[in-house]
Amino acid sequence: MKKIHKWLIPTVLTTVFVGILPGCSDTSDASGANPASVPVKVIKLGQFTDPGLSGKIIPDQDIKIVSKVSGKVAGVNVQEGDKVKKGDVLVQLETDDLLQQVRQAQSGVAAAEAKLADTQAGARTQEIQGLESAVKMAQGAYEQATAALQQASAALDLSTKTYNRLRNMFDSSSSVTQEELDKGTLDYEKAKAGYEQAQAAQKSAAAQVEAAKAKLEQARIGPTDNTLKALQAEVDRLHAGLELANSSLNNATITAPIDGVVVKKSISPGEMAQAGVPIISLVNMDQVQVELSVADNQISKVNVGTPVQVKVQSIPDQLFQGTISFVSPVSNPNSNTFPVKVKVDNKDGLLFAGMVAEVHIDGAGDNRIEVPKSAIVKKENKEYLFIMDNDAARLVEVKTEEKNQDWVYVQPNDKLKGDRQIVVNPGDKLADGTKVKAQ
């Protein structure tokens, strides 16, 4: 009875023995119908191995929420682990001061708009009539001032003649005393001062007439374009201030920008929120990403949009479908690997950030075959395998890579494919072309 040899084959491969087993081989000619054939043991190669690309799972969206304004926290509506919807209020700041700013801005806008509207509407009939009356009053005052000036001029002429007569008489004879000359001099000075005052009053009255006429003319014509532009600019400026005040008020209510889960809360009621400082971390795990680093000799086989399979060690019985979403054209600064991202659906919530994932990309993995070390033949610093070619053993040169103490990886070629039979333990008697028979 023939002894059956059993070989230990790794479970990762589909490698199977192909030999002459009892009940399956032709034993009718025990002496051997072909005495030239050398009996050998063979195995059939399994499928190519794809070790996959190792990466880490990260959230598809990871947002650090900050406050746009500084203020005291009035309330925090969420806790770590809470699920929120987009638009839900997360944190509320106190708004008393902000409301006062809004009211002040609204008052300023209302006043400026009213002034602009009145100016655009122009003067009313009553205003025109009032300005016409002002012109008439100014003209009347001017006429009175003119009459007063004429009286002052006549008084000055009289006092001048009297003073000149007294002065001549005082100098030529003693008929005029010093007291009479002094009185005549004083009357002259008074008349001169009165004339000057009357003259100034007439000029002032004339100016008032011109001013009243100008106001009346402006009221009849209406405001100039520059006046309207200046008033409109003031309205726009105050509107901008109102919008800013409303924005600050709205920013005091901090809402969720996306659907997600609160993973960190670093603020509590009563504390001061500082503008630009993160207060809540929110992630969306309905879809996750796997971050990979792909070697430079494989990156050309990785393309955006390519479907992939993702495996996670903690969930060994499930494959996740993913798609390559990003391939960096720039390598990592400290290595010859390129960043790649894969998007994976996670609506069931089985994948968590930080998990190690194995991504299998068609064509990007190492296409290698596993063979037992006992099948490797070494000659002249080269390594070979014997493959079965019909009834002959053919020597094929291979390149190997260490796997463990019993197995090695072999790169496939046109003569060595995943479904070929190879000879194990070939021995020294076997040569290229030797007739063999599977045993």
UniProtKB/TrEMBL annotation:
| Stretches assigned to the Multidrug resistance protein MdtA-like barrel-sandwich hybrid domain | 63-278
Organism in which the protein naturally occurs: Paenibacillus naphthalenovorans
Superkingdom is Bacteria
Give the similarity note: Belongs to the membrane fusion protein (MFP) (TC 8.A.1) family.
InterPro entries annotated for this entry? Beta-barrel_RND_2, MdtA-like_BSH, RND_pump_MFP, YknX-like_C
What GO MF terms are annotated?
Answer: efflux transmembrane transporter activity
Residue ranges of domain CusB-like beta-barrel in the record:
290-363
Which GO terms of the cellular component aspect does the record hold?
Answer: efflux pump complex
In Swiss-Prot or TrEMBL terms, this protein is called Putative efflux pump membrane fusion protein
The record, for SUPFAM superfamilies, names: HlyD-like secretion proteins (SSF111369)
Q: Which residues form the YknX-like C-terminal permuted SH3-like domain?
A: 369-437
